[in-house]
Amino acid sequence: MTPAVVILVGAVLLAGCTAAPSPTPASAAPASAAPHTEPMPGGPLSTTAGQSPADVALQLEALLGQHSVLVADMMRSRIRNDADFAQAASTAVTRNTDDLTAVVKAMFGDQAAMAFRTTWSEHTTAFFNYARGIAANDTAARDDARAQLVKFESGLGDFFAGASQGRLPPAAARSALTAHVDHLLRQADEYAARDYGRAADDYRTAYSHAFGIGQTLAATLLPPDEAAKLDQPSWRLRSELDRLLGEHIALAVAALRAGATESPDFPAAAASLDQNTDQLTAAMGALFGPAAGQQFMQLWADHIDALVGYTSAVAGNDGAGRQAALDKLRGFEGKLAAFLDTATGSRIPSAELASAFLHHDQMLTEQVDAMANKDYAKAHELAYNAYQDMFGLAKQLSVAFGDTVAAQLPQGGAETGAGGTAPR
Amino acid sequence: MRWRPVACVVLGVTAVVCSVIAATAPPSPPPAPPPAVSASEASFHSVRSYADVAEPVRLRIPALGVDAPLTHLGVAPNGTIEVPADFAVPGWFDQGPRPGQPGPAVILGHVDSKAGPAVFYRLNRLPVGAVVFVDRADGSTVDFRVRGMQHVAKTAFPTDLVYAPTLEPSLRLVTCGGPFDHSRSSYLDNVIVYADP
Description:
The complex is a heterodimer. By secondary structure, chain A is mainly α.
Protein backbone atom coordinates (compact mmCIF):
# COMPACT_ATOMS: atom_id res chain seq x y z
CA MET A 1 0.00 0.00 0.00
CA THR A 2 1.45 3.33 -1.00
CA PRO A 3 1.70 6.16 1.53
CA ALA A 4 -0.95 8.08 -0.37
CA VAL A 5 -3.39 5.19 -0.16
CA VAL A 6 -2.66 4.80 3.53
CA ILE A 7 -3.45 8.43 4.02
CA LEU A 8 -6.71 8.14 2.14
CA VAL A 9 -7.68 5.05 4.12
CA GLY A 10 -6.93 7.00 7.25
CA ALA A 11 -9.04 9.84 5.98
CA VAL A 12 -12.02 7.58 5.39
CA LEU A 13 -11.59 6.14 8.84
CA LEU A 14 -11.39 9.57 10.39
CA ALA A 15 -14.80 10.28 8.98
CA GLY A 16 -16.12 7.36 10.95
CA CYS A 17 -14.93 8.67 14.29
CA THR A 18 -18.16 10.33 15.18
CA ALA A 19 -17.60 9.86 18.87
CA ALA A 20 -14.50 11.97 18.83
CA PRO A 21 -15.03 15.15 20.78
CA SER A 22 -12.78 17.09 18.50
CA PRO A 23 -13.62 16.46 14.85
CA THR A 24 -11.05 17.02 12.19
CA PRO A 25 -11.55 17.36 8.46
CA ALA A 26 -12.71 13.99 7.32
CA SER A 27 -10.32 13.81 4.41
CA ALA A 28 -7.36 15.02 6.35
CA ALA A 29 -4.12 13.21 6.74
CA PRO A 30 -2.05 13.47 9.88
CA ALA A 31 -0.36 16.84 9.98
CA SER A 32 3.02 15.24 10.30
CA ALA A 33 2.78 13.49 6.96
CA ALA A 34 5.27 14.66 4.37
CA PRO A 35 3.75 16.68 1.57
CA HIS A 36 3.70 15.22 -1.90
CA THR A 37 4.23 18.14 -4.13
CA GLU A 38 5.59 16.91 -7.42
CA PRO A 39 3.16 17.53 -10.25
CA MET A 40 2.65 14.66 -12.54
CA PRO A 41 3.97 14.87 -16.06
CA GLY A 42 1.56 15.06 -18.91
CA GLY A 43 1.10 18.79 -18.94
CA PRO A 44 -1.94 20.76 -19.84
CA LEU A 45 -4.64 19.81 -20.21
CA SER A 46 -7.71 17.84 -20.75
CA THR A 47 -11.03 18.76 -19.25
CA THR A 48 -14.17 16.85 -18.56
CA ALA A 49 -16.64 16.28 -21.33
CA GLY A 50 -18.91 19.21 -21.96
CA GLN A 51 -16.75 21.62 -19.99
CA SER A 52 -14.67 24.18 -21.79
CA PRO A 53 -11.31 25.17 -20.30
CA ALA A 54 -12.84 28.57 -19.55
CA ASP A 55 -15.55 26.77 -17.55
CA VAL A 56 -12.89 24.87 -15.65
CA ALA A 57 -11.22 28.16 -14.77
CA LEU A 58 -14.49 29.47 -13.35
CA GLN A 59 -14.98 26.26 -11.42
CA LEU A 60 -11.50 26.59 -9.94
CA GLU A 61 -12.26 30.13 -8.82
CA ALA A 62 -15.57 29.15 -7.27
CA LEU A 63 -14.18 26.13 -5.43
CA LEU A 64 -11.19 27.99 -4.03
CA GLY A 65 -13.43 30.82 -2.83
CA GLN A 66 -15.70 28.26 -1.23
CA HIS A 67 -12.71 26.51 0.34
CA SER A 68 -11.81 29.75 2.10
CA VAL A 69 -15.32 30.23 3.48
CA LEU A 70 -15.72 26.62 4.61
CA VAL A 71 -12.32 26.53 6.32
CA ALA A 72 -13.04 29.82 8.10
CA ASP A 73 -16.40 28.44 9.28
CA MET A 74 -14.73 25.24 10.46
CA MET A 75 -12.08 27.18 12.38
CA ARG A 76 -14.66 29.40 14.02
CA SER A 77 -16.78 26.47 15.14
CA ARG A 78 -13.70 24.87 16.64
CA ILE A 79 -12.88 28.10 18.46
CA ARG A 80 -16.45 28.10 19.82
CA ASN A 81 -15.98 24.47 20.83
CA ASP A 82 -19.10 23.67 18.82
CA ALA A 83 -18.22 20.06 18.03
CA ASP A 84 -21.37 19.18 16.10
CA PHE A 85 -21.08 22.19 13.85
CA ALA A 86 -17.36 21.56 13.40
CA GLN A 87 -18.07 18.01 12.30
CA ALA A 88 -20.52 19.20 9.66
CA ALA A 89 -18.17 21.97 8.60
CA SER A 90 -15.29 19.56 8.17
CA THR A 91 -17.49 17.30 6.06
CA ALA A 92 -18.25 20.28 3.83
CA VAL A 93 -14.52 21.04 3.62
CA THR A 94 -13.96 17.46 2.51
CA ARG A 95 -16.66 17.73 -0.14
CA ASN A 96 -14.97 20.85 -1.43
CA THR A 97 -11.62 19.07 -1.43
CA ASP A 98 -13.20 16.24 -3.41
CA ASP A 99 -14.55 18.70 -5.95
CA LEU A 100 -11.20 20.47 -6.23
CA THR A 101 -9.46 17.15 -6.66
CA ALA A 102 -11.84 16.29 -9.47
CA VAL A 103 -10.82 19.48 -11.25
CA VAL A 104 -7.13 18.67 -10.80
CA LYS A 105 -7.80 15.14 -12.02
CA ALA A 106 -9.56 16.42 -15.12
CA MET A 107 -6.61 18.66 -15.83
CA PHE A 108 -3.63 16.50 -14.93
CA GLY A 109 -4.79 12.95 -14.33
CA ASP A 110 -5.07 10.50 -11.45
CA GLN A 111 -1.56 10.67 -10.04
CA ALA A 112 -1.50 14.44 -9.86
CA ALA A 113 -4.95 14.44 -8.30
CA MET A 114 -3.79 12.04 -5.62
CA ALA A 115 -0.73 14.14 -4.84
CA PHE A 116 -2.80 17.30 -4.75
CA ARG A 117 -5.45 15.80 -2.51
CA THR A 118 -2.92 14.62 0.01
CA THR A 119 -1.21 17.97 0.45
CA TRP A 120 -4.46 19.90 0.25
CA SER A 121 -6.00 17.74 2.98
CA GLU A 122 -2.96 18.25 5.17
CA HIS A 123 -3.32 21.95 4.61
CA THR A 124 -6.98 21.96 5.77
CA THR A 125 -6.07 19.85 8.78
CA ALA A 126 -3.42 22.36 9.78
CA PHE A 127 -6.05 25.12 9.75
CA PHE A 128 -8.18 23.01 12.06
CA ASN A 129 -5.22 22.39 14.33
CA TYR A 130 -4.52 26.10 14.49
CA ALA A 131 -8.09 26.75 15.63
CA ARG A 132 -7.76 23.96 18.16
CA GLY A 133 -4.64 25.67 19.48
CA ILE A 134 -6.61 28.89 19.87
CA ALA A 135 -9.45 27.13 21.66
CA ALA A 136 -7.07 25.38 24.04
CA ASN A 137 -4.98 28.53 24.49
CA ASP A 138 -2.05 26.37 23.42
CA THR A 139 0.52 28.64 21.83
CA ALA A 140 2.80 25.76 20.92
CA ALA A 141 0.00 24.02 19.03
CA ARG A 142 -0.78 27.21 17.12
CA ASP A 143 2.86 27.76 16.26
CA ASP A 144 3.19 24.17 15.13
CA ALA A 145 0.10 24.44 12.94
CA ARG A 146 1.38 27.67 11.44
CA ALA A 147 4.72 26.05 10.68
CA GLN A 148 2.91 23.13 9.05
CA LEU A 149 0.88 25.53 6.95
CA VAL A 150 4.00 27.32 5.76
CA LYS A 151 5.43 23.99 4.71
CA PHE A 152 2.27 22.86 2.95
CA GLU A 153 1.77 26.18 1.18
CA SER A 154 5.32 25.96 -0.08
CA GLY A 155 4.64 22.44 -1.31
CA LEU A 156 1.37 23.44 -2.95
CA GLY A 157 3.04 26.44 -4.54
CA ASP A 158 5.70 24.19 -6.01
CA PHE A 159 2.99 21.77 -7.18
CA PHE A 160 1.14 24.44 -9.13
CA ALA A 161 4.31 26.10 -10.37
CA GLY A 162 5.50 22.73 -11.69
CA ALA A 163 2.13 22.00 -13.27
CA SER A 164 2.27 25.34 -15.08
CA GLN A 165 5.45 24.22 -16.82
CA GLY A 166 7.28 27.40 -15.96
CA ARG A 167 4.49 29.90 -16.57
CA LEU A 168 3.77 30.42 -12.88
CA PRO A 169 6.93 31.34 -10.95
CA PRO A 170 7.25 29.25 -7.76
CA ALA A 171 7.79 32.37 -5.67
CA ALA A 172 4.58 33.92 -6.97
CA ALA A 173 2.63 30.73 -6.29
CA ARG A 174 4.01 30.45 -2.77
CA SER A 175 3.33 34.11 -2.10
CA ALA A 176 -0.30 33.81 -3.14
CA LEU A 177 -0.82 30.74 -0.97
CA THR A 178 0.99 32.31 1.97
CA ALA A 179 -1.36 35.29 1.78
CA HIS A 180 -4.27 32.82 1.76
CA VAL A 181 -2.98 31.29 4.99
CA ASP A 182 -2.42 34.69 6.57
CA HIS A 183 -5.99 35.77 5.84
CA LEU A 184 -7.53 32.66 7.34
CA LEU A 185 -5.33 32.63 10.43
CA ARG A 186 -5.90 36.31 11.03
CA GLN A 187 -9.70 36.04 10.81
CA ALA A 188 -9.52 33.17 13.30
CA ASP A 189 -7.39 35.19 15.74
CA GLU A 190 -9.75 38.15 15.42
CA TYR A 191 -12.82 35.97 15.86
CA ALA A 192 -11.33 34.41 18.98
CA ALA A 193 -10.57 37.90 20.31
CA ARG A 194 -14.22 38.83 19.63
CA ASP A 195 -13.09 41.50 17.21
CA TYR A 196 -15.92 40.56 14.89
CA GLY A 197 -15.65 43.57 12.62
CA ARG A 198 -12.10 42.79 11.60
CA ALA A 199 -12.82 39.09 11.48
CA ALA A 200 -15.65 39.77 9.03
CA ASP A 201 -13.43 42.00 6.89
CA ASP A 202 -10.78 39.31 6.68
CA TYR A 203 -13.43 36.68 5.96
CA ARG A 204 -14.37 38.69 2.85
CA THR A 205 -10.76 39.37 1.95
CA ALA A 206 -9.92 35.69 2.28
CA TYR A 207 -12.80 34.76 -0.02
CA SER A 208 -11.94 37.25 -2.73
CA HIS A 209 -8.25 36.43 -2.57
CA ALA A 210 -8.84 32.69 -2.79
CA PHE A 211 -11.25 33.25 -5.68
CA GLY A 212 -8.54 35.28 -7.40
CA ILE A 213 -6.00 32.51 -6.88
CA GLY A 214 -8.29 30.39 -9.01
CA GLN A 215 -7.96 32.84 -11.88
CA THR A 216 -4.19 33.08 -11.48
CA LEU A 217 -3.86 29.33 -11.48
CA ALA A 218 -6.16 28.86 -14.44
CA ALA A 219 -4.33 31.49 -16.45
CA THR A 220 -1.08 29.60 -16.03
CA LEU A 221 -2.30 26.02 -15.99
CA LEU A 222 -4.43 26.18 -19.11
CA PRO A 223 -2.73 26.01 -22.51
CA PRO A 224 -1.79 29.53 -23.64
CA ASP A 225 -4.42 29.66 -26.38
CA GLU A 226 -7.11 28.68 -23.89
CA ALA A 227 -5.75 30.94 -21.17
CA ALA A 228 -6.07 33.88 -23.56
CA LYS A 229 -9.84 33.41 -23.40
CA LEU A 230 -9.72 34.47 -19.75
CA ASP A 231 -8.91 37.99 -20.97
CA GLN A 232 -12.07 38.23 -23.03
CA PRO A 233 -14.61 40.66 -21.57
CA SER A 234 -17.39 38.07 -21.60
CA TRP A 235 -15.33 35.72 -19.42
CA ARG A 236 -14.27 38.51 -17.08
CA LEU A 237 -17.85 39.70 -16.69
CA ARG A 238 -18.98 36.20 -15.80
CA SER A 239 -16.05 35.70 -13.44
CA GLU A 240 -16.80 38.91 -11.57
CA LEU A 241 -20.51 38.13 -11.37
CA ASP A 242 -19.57 34.69 -10.07
CA ARG A 243 -17.42 36.28 -7.40
CA LEU A 244 -20.07 38.76 -6.30
CA LEU A 245 -23.00 36.33 -6.31
CA GLY A 246 -20.94 33.58 -4.70
CA GLU A 247 -19.93 36.04 -2.01
CA HIS A 248 -23.57 37.01 -1.55
CA ILE A 249 -24.39 33.40 -0.74
CA ALA A 250 -21.41 32.99 1.58
CA LEU A 251 -22.11 36.20 3.48
CA ALA A 252 -25.87 35.65 3.59
CA VAL A 253 -25.34 32.19 5.03
CA ALA A 254 -22.88 33.56 7.60
CA ALA A 255 -25.25 36.35 8.64
CA LEU A 256 -28.33 34.12 8.76
CA ARG A 257 -26.52 31.51 10.80
CA ALA A 258 -25.36 34.18 13.22
CA GLY A 259 -28.93 35.46 13.38
CA ALA A 260 -30.43 32.01 13.86
CA THR A 261 -28.13 31.32 16.79
CA GLU A 262 -28.22 34.87 18.18
CA SER A 263 -24.48 35.01 17.86
CA PRO A 264 -22.65 38.22 18.77
CA ASP A 265 -21.00 38.40 15.36
CA PHE A 266 -24.34 39.03 13.61
CA PRO A 267 -23.86 42.84 13.21
CA ALA A 268 -20.43 42.34 11.66
CA ALA A 269 -21.68 39.58 9.37
CA ALA A 270 -24.63 41.71 8.30
CA ALA A 271 -22.32 44.67 7.63
CA SER A 272 -20.28 42.46 5.33
CA LEU A 273 -23.44 41.50 3.52
CA ASP A 274 -24.17 45.20 3.05
CA GLN A 275 -20.75 45.68 1.47
CA ASN A 276 -21.53 42.93 -1.00
CA THR A 277 -24.87 44.58 -1.75
CA ASP A 278 -23.04 47.85 -2.42
CA GLN A 279 -20.78 46.11 -4.90
CA LEU A 280 -23.57 44.26 -6.65
CA THR A 281 -25.50 47.50 -6.92
CA ALA A 282 -22.47 49.33 -8.29
CA ALA A 283 -22.24 46.65 -10.96
CA MET A 284 -25.89 47.02 -11.90
CA GLY A 285 -25.55 50.80 -11.97
CA ALA A 286 -22.54 50.59 -14.29
CA LEU A 287 -24.31 48.15 -16.60
CA PHE A 288 -27.75 49.72 -16.78
CA GLY A 289 -27.44 53.25 -15.38
CA PRO A 290 -28.00 54.93 -12.00
CA ALA A 291 -31.79 54.63 -12.01
CA ALA A 292 -31.57 50.89 -12.58
CA GLY A 293 -28.89 50.64 -9.91
CA GLN A 294 -31.13 52.37 -7.40
CA GLN A 295 -34.11 50.20 -8.31
CA PHE A 296 -32.06 47.04 -8.04
CA MET A 297 -30.75 48.06 -4.64
CA GLN A 298 -34.25 48.51 -3.22
CA LEU A 299 -35.29 45.08 -4.48
CA TRP A 300 -32.13 43.42 -3.22
CA ALA A 301 -32.49 45.09 0.18
CA ASP A 302 -36.08 43.87 0.39
CA HIS A 303 -34.77 40.38 -0.30
CA ILE A 304 -32.11 40.51 2.41
CA ASP A 305 -34.45 42.11 4.95
CA ALA A 306 -36.98 39.34 4.32
CA LEU A 307 -34.33 36.66 4.78
CA VAL A 308 -33.14 38.25 8.02
CA GLY A 309 -36.76 38.69 9.10
CA TYR A 310 -37.37 35.01 8.46
CA THR A 311 -34.33 34.11 10.53
CA SER A 312 -35.42 36.35 13.35
CA ALA A 313 -38.89 34.79 13.33
CA VAL A 314 -37.46 31.28 13.37
CA ALA A 315 -35.12 32.16 16.24
CA GLY A 316 -38.07 33.71 18.12
CA ASN A 317 -40.43 30.83 17.28
CA ASP A 318 -42.74 33.36 15.64
CA GLY A 319 -44.88 31.46 13.15
CA ALA A 320 -46.74 34.51 11.86
CA GLY A 321 -43.48 36.41 11.37
CA ARG A 322 -42.02 33.46 9.53
CA GLN A 323 -44.96 33.32 7.12
CA ALA A 324 -44.88 37.08 6.62
CA ALA A 325 -41.20 36.85 5.66
CA LEU A 326 -41.91 34.03 3.23
CA ASP A 327 -44.68 36.09 1.65
CA LYS A 328 -42.26 38.97 1.19
CA LEU A 329 -39.74 36.66 -0.42
CA ARG A 330 -42.34 35.33 -2.86
CA GLY A 331 -43.11 38.92 -3.81
CA PHE A 332 -39.44 39.78 -4.21
CA GLU A 333 -38.75 36.89 -6.54
CA GLY A 334 -41.31 38.04 -9.08
CA LYS A 335 -40.30 41.69 -8.84
CA LEU A 336 -36.59 41.06 -9.32
CA ALA A 337 -37.30 38.73 -12.22
CA ALA A 338 -39.49 41.39 -13.85
CA PHE A 339 -36.81 44.04 -13.26
CA LEU A 340 -34.11 41.91 -14.92
CA ASP A 341 -36.46 40.94 -17.74
CA THR A 342 -36.92 44.64 -18.51
CA ALA A 343 -33.25 45.54 -18.01
CA THR A 344 -32.09 42.83 -20.41
CA GLY A 345 -34.77 43.29 -23.04
CA SER A 346 -36.35 39.94 -22.14
CA ARG A 347 -33.13 38.05 -22.75
CA ILE A 348 -33.99 35.89 -19.75
CA PRO A 349 -37.62 34.89 -19.39
CA SER A 350 -39.13 36.37 -16.26
CA ALA A 351 -40.77 33.11 -15.21
CA GLU A 352 -37.47 31.24 -15.45
CA LEU A 353 -35.73 33.86 -13.35
CA ALA A 354 -38.47 33.91 -10.73
CA SER A 355 -38.15 30.15 -10.43
CA ALA A 356 -34.39 30.42 -9.98
CA PHE A 357 -34.79 33.04 -7.25
CA LEU A 358 -37.44 30.93 -5.53
CA HIS A 359 -35.04 28.00 -5.46
CA HIS A 360 -32.29 30.26 -4.11
CA ASP A 361 -34.47 31.62 -1.32
CA GLN A 362 -35.81 28.20 -0.42
CA MET A 363 -32.33 26.82 0.05
CA LEU A 364 -31.41 29.75 2.28
CA THR A 365 -34.54 29.57 4.42
CA GLU A 366 -34.34 25.79 4.73
CA GLN A 367 -30.75 26.27 5.76
CA VAL A 368 -31.97 28.56 8.54
CA ASP A 369 -34.50 25.93 9.63
CA ALA A 370 -31.76 23.32 9.73
CA MET A 371 -29.56 25.58 11.82
CA ALA A 372 -32.39 26.23 14.26
CA ASN A 373 -32.95 22.48 14.52
CA LYS A 374 -29.22 21.94 15.03
CA ASP A 375 -29.17 19.77 11.92
CA TYR A 376 -25.80 21.13 10.92
CA ALA A 377 -25.14 18.50 8.28
CA LYS A 378 -28.27 19.51 6.41
CA ALA A 379 -27.50 23.20 6.89
CA HIS A 380 -24.07 22.73 5.36
CA GLU A 381 -25.38 20.64 2.49
CA LEU A 382 -27.98 23.28 1.65
CA ALA A 383 -25.46 26.09 1.87
CA TYR A 384 -23.00 24.16 -0.29
CA ASN A 385 -25.63 23.55 -2.93
CA ALA A 386 -26.89 27.13 -2.78
CA TYR A 387 -23.35 28.37 -3.42
CA GLN A 388 -22.80 26.06 -6.37
CA ASP A 389 -26.26 26.76 -7.72
CA MET A 390 -25.51 30.46 -7.91
CA PHE A 391 -22.97 29.96 -10.67
CA GLY A 392 -25.57 28.62 -13.08
CA LEU A 393 -27.60 31.76 -12.50
CA ALA A 394 -24.50 33.94 -12.85
CA LYS A 395 -23.78 32.35 -16.23
CA GLN A 396 -27.27 33.14 -17.51
CA LEU A 397 -27.13 36.68 -16.15
CA SER A 398 -23.66 37.43 -17.51
CA VAL A 399 -24.66 36.31 -21.01
CA ALA A 400 -27.85 38.37 -20.90
CA PHE A 401 -26.07 41.42 -19.43
CA GLY A 402 -23.22 41.22 -21.93
CA ASP A 403 -25.56 40.85 -24.91
CA THR A 404 -27.77 43.69 -23.73
CA VAL A 405 -24.87 46.11 -23.39
CA ALA A 406 -23.22 44.90 -26.60
CA ALA A 407 -26.36 45.70 -28.59
CA GLN A 408 -25.95 49.37 -27.63
CA LEU A 409 -22.21 49.76 -28.26
CA PRO A 410 -20.75 51.83 -31.07
CA GLN A 411 -19.27 49.89 -33.94
CA GLY A 412 -15.97 50.40 -35.71
CA GLY A 413 -13.11 52.79 -35.10
CA ALA A 414 -13.18 56.43 -34.12
CA GLU A 415 -12.63 59.34 -36.52
CA THR A 416 -10.37 61.27 -34.18
CA GLY A 417 -7.99 63.02 -36.54
CA ALA A 418 -8.06 65.08 -39.68
CA GLY A 419 -4.66 66.62 -40.34
CA GLY A 420 -2.34 63.79 -41.32
CA THR A 421 0.35 65.05 -38.93
CA ALA A 422 0.08 62.36 -36.23
CA PRO A 423 3.46 61.20 -34.94
CA ARG A 424 4.34 57.65 -36.03
CA MET B 1 -12.24 -15.72 4.49
CA ARG B 2 -9.68 -13.73 2.61
CA TRP B 3 -11.05 -10.33 3.54
CA ARG B 4 -10.69 -10.84 7.25
CA PRO B 5 -7.07 -9.74 7.65
CA VAL B 6 -7.83 -6.57 5.72
CA ALA B 7 -10.82 -5.88 7.91
CA CYS B 8 -8.71 -6.38 11.00
CA VAL B 9 -6.15 -3.94 9.74
CA VAL B 10 -8.84 -1.42 8.93
CA LEU B 11 -10.47 -1.75 12.31
CA GLY B 12 -7.11 -1.52 14.00
CA VAL B 13 -6.26 1.66 12.13
CA THR B 14 -9.69 3.03 12.99
CA ALA B 15 -9.09 2.47 16.65
CA VAL B 16 -5.68 4.04 16.51
CA VAL B 17 -6.90 7.09 14.60
CA CYS B 18 -9.87 7.59 16.89
CA SER B 19 -7.62 7.21 19.88
CA VAL B 20 -5.28 9.83 18.49
CA ILE B 21 -8.17 12.24 18.05
CA ALA B 22 -9.41 11.58 21.55
CA ALA B 23 -5.93 11.91 23.01
CA THR B 24 -5.28 15.18 21.25
CA ALA B 25 -8.56 16.79 22.24
CA PRO B 26 -8.11 19.78 24.53
CA PRO B 27 -8.15 18.76 28.17
CA SER B 28 -10.73 21.32 29.10
CA PRO B 29 -13.38 23.12 27.11
CA PRO B 30 -12.48 26.55 25.76
CA PRO B 31 -14.30 29.64 26.93
CA ALA B 32 -18.05 29.64 26.52
CA PRO B 33 -19.50 31.87 23.81
CA PRO B 34 -19.85 35.49 24.83
CA PRO B 35 -23.21 36.88 25.91
CA ALA B 36 -26.00 37.50 23.44
CA VAL B 37 -25.73 40.37 21.01
CA SER B 38 -27.22 43.72 21.89
CA ALA B 39 -27.88 44.82 18.29
CA SER B 40 -29.78 41.80 17.10
CA GLU B 41 -31.03 40.94 13.66
CA ALA B 42 -34.38 42.38 14.63
CA SER B 43 -32.99 45.89 14.21
CA PHE B 44 -31.10 45.16 10.99
CA HIS B 45 -32.05 46.84 7.73
CA SER B 46 -30.13 46.19 4.55
CA VAL B 47 -28.28 49.09 2.96
CA ARG B 48 -30.47 51.09 0.56
CA SER B 49 -28.48 54.21 -0.26
CA TYR B 50 -27.11 53.92 -3.78
CA ALA B 51 -23.61 55.40 -3.94
CA ASP B 52 -23.56 56.86 -7.43
CA VAL B 53 -20.24 57.75 -9.05
CA ALA B 54 -20.19 61.35 -10.27
CA GLU B 55 -19.74 62.15 -13.94
CA PRO B 56 -16.23 62.94 -15.20
CA VAL B 57 -15.56 66.61 -15.93
CA ARG B 58 -11.83 66.91 -16.57
CA LEU B 59 -8.94 64.82 -17.88
CA ARG B 60 -5.34 65.32 -16.76
CA ILE B 61 -2.34 63.46 -18.16
CA PRO B 62 0.79 65.09 -16.70
CA ALA B 63 3.16 63.06 -18.88
CA LEU B 64 1.60 64.64 -22.00
CA GLY B 65 0.79 68.05 -20.56
CA VAL B 66 -2.93 67.37 -21.07
CA ASP B 67 -5.32 69.22 -18.76
CA ALA B 68 -8.70 69.66 -20.40
CA PRO B 69 -12.41 69.66 -19.66
CA LEU B 70 -14.46 66.72 -20.89
CA THR B 71 -17.43 66.73 -23.18
CA HIS B 72 -20.05 63.98 -23.57
CA LEU B 73 -20.18 61.53 -26.46
CA GLY B 74 -22.78 59.04 -27.62
CA VAL B 75 -23.44 56.84 -30.62
CA ALA B 76 -23.80 58.55 -34.00
CA PRO B 77 -26.77 57.71 -36.28
CA ASN B 78 -24.50 55.52 -38.42
CA GLY B 79 -23.62 53.38 -35.40
CA THR B 80 -20.09 54.69 -34.89
CA ILE B 81 -19.03 56.58 -31.82
CA GLU B 82 -19.44 60.34 -31.82
CA VAL B 83 -16.25 62.38 -31.70
CA PRO B 84 -15.62 65.71 -29.94
CA ALA B 85 -16.51 68.79 -31.94
CA ASP B 86 -13.64 70.71 -30.33
CA PHE B 87 -10.20 69.38 -31.22
CA ALA B 88 -8.79 70.65 -27.90
CA VAL B 89 -11.41 68.90 -25.80
CA PRO B 90 -11.59 65.12 -25.21
CA GLY B 91 -14.95 63.40 -24.78
CA TRP B 92 -16.30 60.70 -22.49
CA PHE B 93 -18.61 58.02 -23.93
CA ASP B 94 -21.52 58.63 -21.58
CA GLN B 95 -23.44 55.45 -22.42
CA GLY B 96 -20.74 53.37 -20.75
CA PRO B 97 -19.36 53.35 -17.20
CA ARG B 98 -18.15 56.52 -15.54
CA PRO B 99 -14.45 56.49 -14.65
CA GLY B 100 -14.13 54.52 -11.42
CA GLN B 101 -17.35 52.57 -11.94
CA PRO B 102 -17.09 48.83 -12.57
CA GLY B 103 -16.18 48.39 -16.23
CA PRO B 104 -14.29 50.25 -18.94
CA ALA B 105 -14.76 54.02 -19.16
CA VAL B 106 -13.87 55.33 -22.63
CA ILE B 107 -12.46 58.77 -23.45
CA LEU B 108 -11.74 59.89 -27.01
CA GLY B 109 -9.63 62.79 -28.22
CA HIS B 110 -8.42 64.02 -31.58
CA VAL B 111 -4.79 63.54 -32.55
CA ASP B 112 -4.79 66.52 -34.87
CA SER B 113 -6.88 68.79 -37.07
CA LYS B 114 -6.15 70.41 -40.37
CA ALA B 115 -4.80 73.29 -38.31
CA GLY B 116 -2.26 71.22 -36.37
CA PRO B 117 -1.87 69.03 -33.26
CA ALA B 118 -4.91 68.34 -31.09
CA VAL B 119 -5.40 67.23 -27.47
CA PHE B 120 -4.22 63.60 -27.95
CA TYR B 121 -1.40 64.47 -30.36
CA ARG B 122 1.22 62.58 -28.36
CA LEU B 123 -1.00 59.83 -26.96
CA ASN B 124 1.05 57.17 -28.73
CA ARG B 125 4.08 58.28 -26.69
CA LEU B 126 2.36 57.70 -23.34
CA PRO B 127 4.58 55.24 -21.46
CA VAL B 128 3.39 52.23 -19.50
CA GLY B 129 3.00 53.26 -15.87
CA ALA B 130 2.07 56.87 -16.66
CA VAL B 131 -0.71 58.24 -14.48
CA VAL B 132 -4.00 59.54 -15.87
CA PHE B 133 -6.29 61.59 -13.64
CA VAL B 134 -10.01 62.06 -14.13
CA ASP B 135 -11.71 64.74 -12.06
CA ARG B 136 -15.41 64.23 -11.34
CA ALA B 137 -18.34 66.56 -10.85
CA ASP B 138 -18.42 66.01 -7.10
CA GLY B 139 -14.81 67.18 -6.69
CA SER B 140 -13.39 63.67 -6.43
CA THR B 141 -10.56 62.38 -8.61
CA VAL B 142 -9.84 58.87 -9.80
CA ASP B 143 -6.44 57.93 -11.17
CA PHE B 144 -5.36 55.18 -13.54
CA ARG B 145 -1.99 53.81 -14.58
CA VAL B 146 -1.26 52.95 -18.17
CA ARG B 147 -1.03 49.20 -18.65
CA GLY B 148 -0.52 49.01 -22.37
CA MET B 149 -1.19 50.41 -25.82
CA GLN B 150 -2.56 48.98 -29.02
CA HIS B 151 -2.41 50.20 -32.62
CA VAL B 152 -5.23 48.70 -34.66
CA ALA B 153 -6.73 49.18 -38.07
CA LYS B 154 -10.09 50.91 -37.80
CA THR B 155 -11.54 48.09 -39.86
CA ALA B 156 -10.49 45.68 -37.10
CA PHE B 157 -11.38 47.88 -34.14
CA PRO B 158 -11.71 45.66 -31.01
CA THR B 159 -15.14 46.85 -29.87
CA ASP B 160 -15.27 44.13 -27.21
CA LEU B 161 -11.93 44.94 -25.63
CA VAL B 162 -12.65 48.66 -25.57
CA TYR B 163 -16.30 48.88 -24.62
CA ALA B 164 -17.69 45.54 -23.44
CA PRO B 165 -18.61 45.30 -19.75
CA THR B 166 -16.19 43.52 -17.42
CA LEU B 167 -17.12 44.95 -13.98
CA GLU B 168 -13.45 45.79 -13.45
CA PRO B 169 -12.90 49.56 -13.23
CA SER B 170 -10.62 50.65 -16.06
CA LEU B 171 -10.03 53.43 -18.58
CA ARG B 172 -9.50 53.44 -22.34
CA LEU B 173 -8.10 56.45 -24.20
CA VAL B 174 -8.67 56.42 -27.95
CA THR B 175 -7.32 58.53 -30.81
CA CYS B 176 -6.20 58.14 -34.42
CA GLY B 177 -2.83 57.06 -35.78
CA GLY B 178 -1.06 55.18 -38.51
CA PRO B 179 -1.20 55.98 -42.22
CA PHE B 180 -3.32 58.92 -43.33
CA ASP B 181 -5.70 58.65 -46.27
CA HIS B 182 -5.58 62.17 -47.76
CA SER B 183 -8.42 61.44 -50.12
CA ARG B 184 -10.75 60.84 -47.18
CA SER B 185 -8.94 63.03 -44.63
CA SER B 186 -8.95 60.04 -42.32
CA TYR B 187 -6.40 57.93 -40.51
CA LEU B 188 -6.48 54.22 -41.14
CA ASP B 189 -5.69 53.21 -37.56
CA ASN B 190 -6.71 53.90 -34.00
CA VAL B 191 -4.41 54.12 -30.99
CA ILE B 192 -5.92 52.63 -27.82
CA VAL B 193 -4.41 53.12 -24.37
CA TYR B 194 -5.49 50.69 -21.64
CA ALA B 195 -5.23 51.93 -18.04
CA ASP B 196 -6.21 50.42 -14.69
CA PRO B 197 -6.75 51.95 -11.24
